[in-house]
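Notebook, p. 212. Picked up where the previous page left off. The plan for this session was modest: take the two constructs that came back from the sequencing core last week, fold each one, and keep the raw output in the notebook itself so nobody has to go hunting through shared drives later. Recording the first one now, exactly as returned: residue sequence, then the structure token string.
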Amino acid sequence: MRMLRPVRLHQALSRTVHTITLPDPDGGAAVWAVETHTMEDHEARLYRDGQRIGAAEMPAGFTVPGGRIEVDAGLYGVTRVHLVTPDGRERRLAPAPGTLEHRRAVLTRDHPRLSRRIAVTAVVILLVNLVLAVPAGIEMVTSIPQVAERFGTFTSPVVLPGWLLGTLTVAGVVAAVERAVTWRYNRIVDAETIWTSL
């Protein structure tokens, strides 16, 4: 039986572990953990007191005492890891020490002002990228012959130098990861991350 290993620093961007302690029917308690390797595969692994007892392709669901743990992930990290009780209530599992989510939560707790500045910067970056992506997206769609015949073509008035385009792309990925690890989502702000996840 495989044992759950601690999350190392070099795994922070690719591996997550979330835990929850649940009472057992016999009166005891067990620590349940869900592990994902979002850059390696799309599988969630379930552990009980550190021992692996199951795995499933995401979106995954595992039956545990008191309900069901539901797990899913996207390109930028885990999007759902919740215990759902029979009456429909949901409780998010806690990020384990060493994970990017845990490190970000500690930063929020210890340096709330810096945390807010990082969050605002991420939103600004994603909105700038979204505004710049709209004309580029229209140009790409109108370059399809069938669309061009019906609606004509469109040339984006915004032409960015390669270095700036690369910088904005990297900044956008970092901003998307920031939004993912802090469990923030907005249909408008995070619209660009939907396209890059396809």
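Okay, moving on. Second construct, recorded in the same format:
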Amino acid sequence: MSQDAGNTVKAGLSRSEGGRRHQWSVLVVALAAALGAVVLPPLTIEQQFWIVLVPIGVFGLSHGGADPLILRRLAADRRGTVALMTTLYVLASLAFVALIWFLPTLALLVFLLLSIWHFGYTDASFLSAQPNALLLWLSGSLPILGPMLGHPAQTSELFAWLIVRDPEQVRSILELAGPVLAGVWLLGFGRLAYRYHHKLSSRVLAELILVAVALILLPPLLAFAFYFCVIHSIRHFLSVAQQGLGVGEVAATLAFLGRKAAPATLGAIGIAFGVWVVIVLLEPSTTLLVEAVRVMFWALAALTLPHGLVVKTWWESRLSAS
């Protein structure tokens, strides 16, 4: 793959009409979210959960629901190859489930790192036509770092539920790690602004700042839903539309992708609900909320590894074809 070919496709994402409109939308929504968070009354985790359940469960998951369509395109609709790639997809997901089962703390760390990489890999391409590893990590780390800084108590409780640990122990770690990571992020942002200011639009720096503020001020589940649904999922759909999974105008293409993603999305929701019911029946002493949070985030974690690999493979195949 030539550097020129890669830059051409990246430019197509960052300079496309849909990409530019969405970036302006992100600036407006992030500012509104930050201002709204200031006047928002304190929300419990349970209240946040019911607010974000539908957006994350339907809209957020649907961006991964397009994976079967991508797999078919990668396999050129050859049935044997599609079956093989689908099997590998499922095995990767099951391998992560095994990691969650036996080593939940390690699984959480891997999940967070995978999320940072995958968010950045997709979203940074809408911010810069040139590959920029620093921008990738700055952008992708925001949905993880923001809640850690702004709401360490609730974020610690959520993490503790996932790994079945004492929330105070987790909080002591986050309160130590959060400021250190924030300092590293600020240093990286300073380097980005100093070294690449002539290559990046001022909108890029504005987005990083506004999104960071919104994610710090919003309660953790609302912050995650804001980034996952409003920023990442829309950019994922725009990227696959831009790179040839649909034809026609952006709106028509997104509608097409939504229809194609619906079966896998509904299947994932059904499986997650079934797992939740089984866990509650096996452990009646636990609370419905704790298990619901576990199922939601561990389901996302189990899908992040194969989904991220599929997206990367698809993008690289499109770059090679350019």
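Notes on construct two before I forget. The CA atoms of residues 116 and 140 lie 4 Å apart.
Flagging for discussion at group meeting.
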